[in-house]
Write a structure and sequence with these properties.
Blueprint: E1 5-8, E2 22-25, E3 29-36, H1 51-68, E4 76-83, H2 86-91, H3 93-104, E5 110-115, E6 128-136
Parallel strand pairs: 4-5
Antiparallel strand pairs: 1-2, 3-6, 4-6
């Protein structure tokens, strides 16, 4: 992780597992990342019906956006995850966690998981959408 951002996890709050309570921005440029779904460069849904495969594609898309702006995954300070089925997400959390570590290592931005009744690309088979914010040095 770069020195331009730092996690804030007050000891008086519950210990965060897999996320941080907040991130302090010390310097840098802010990159707002639009909601990414499991579509590849040809607009094809990757992993129809497979939340873990879709999570991997979304992480790939996030990495593509961040690196195009000159950053890296550890510059991401906030993620909001929207899923059609929270129960499915929880059941697959070990597998999702494994994919997460492939992209983020031990970097845990501030995160929010939201159960969404619908996503814009649901009709195409998308089960998850993730938006974020990064601070680039």
């Amino acid at each position: 992780m770069s020195g331009h951002i730092a996690p804030v996890n007050p000891p008086s709050l519950m210990k965060p597992v897999g996320y941080s309570h907040a991130y302090e921005v010390k310097s840098g440029r802010v990159l707002f990342i639009a909601g990414q779904v499991a579509k590849d460069g040809a607009s094809q849904v990757v992993g129809k019906g497979d939340l873990v495969a879709q999570f991997r594609q979304v992480c790939d898309n996030l990495r593509t956006v961040v690196t195009a702006a000159g950053g890296q995954m550890t510059d991401i300070v906030k993620l909001t995850l929207y899923v059609i089925d929270v129960d499915d997400y929880k059941k697959r959390s070990r597998e999702i966690g494994g994919v997460y570590r492939e992209y983020f290592g031990k970097h845990f931005p501030a995160m929010t998981l939201v159960g969404a009744r619908d996503l814009y690309d649901r009709e195409d088979g998308c089960m998850i959408e993730i938006e974020g914010m990064a601070v680039l040095a």
